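Chapter review: from sequence to fold.
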Amino acid sequence: MIRFMRFTWLYFLISGLVIIPGFISLTLYGLRPSIDFTGGTELQVLVEPKDGQAVSEDEIRKGFGESLDISEIRIVDKSILLKAKPIDTTKKDAAMEKLRQSFAEVKETRFETVGPVLGRELLVKTLIAMLLSASGITLYVAYRFSELKYGVCAVLAMFHDSLVLFGVFSLLGHFMHVEVDVLFVTAVLTILSFSVHDTIVVYDRIRELRRRNTGKPYIDLVDTAVTETMSRSINNSMTIIFMLFVLWLFGGNTIQWFVFALLVGTVTGTYSSTFTAAPLLVVWDAFVRKRRK
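The token string follows.
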């Protein structure tokens, strides 16, 4: 048996070193929401300048004129992504015709528009879904293990994974303009489920050991449970990580950041199940015993 719980402070320190930069970024910059949450229009086009020179932002704004209320322009080689206030297909087609007058060739590759009311509604539903998930998991785990501490510690570990994921995407949004959209919400809810699933495996082993070893110190039971479930957790997670890594490399731009969110969440979920959820139980048990004395 490896005495993992001797280094509880070290696990919390590692978690802190990972979470704090992301938390600071969330406080200063927040997340970078896509039009799914803010509402608006995204139009992506490929252009071929008449003179063969590089495309500039001024040329794009001049080409569209006042047909679009453009809020942001991103240019990568000859691919241009524009963000503007919501417009319908008729206005979009008129804007494209005006742009074609300024360039040798213009090809539309993507057009999305979302109203601001729908964006706000989606954001509210996302927050409600996360709160309901956390509450349901807390109550269910506490009920199944007959102790509140199991439910609370499982959700705290889940909250740990959420902070890591949100912090990573806050940093990516600030430095690389990565946006969070509906797929990111899907990834977050999926990761929360995976994190709790792995945590319950450890908790279930602790419960079995308590039934068979009634006089054994609680910290020793947790050490034994972690030792016995460690290989299972790593083997299970590595098969998922390998698959997600390959999908991230070759899956294309459409799902690139969705897969990356799943990848980050799988790694941190594997870590937190063993090195956050289990140590939290030990700290909780030690605190209760100290209060009783």
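Two observations follow directly from the output. The domain at 4-35+118-292 is CATH 1.20.1640.10 (Multidrug efflux transporter AcrB transmembrane fold). The chain has a mean pLDDT of 86.
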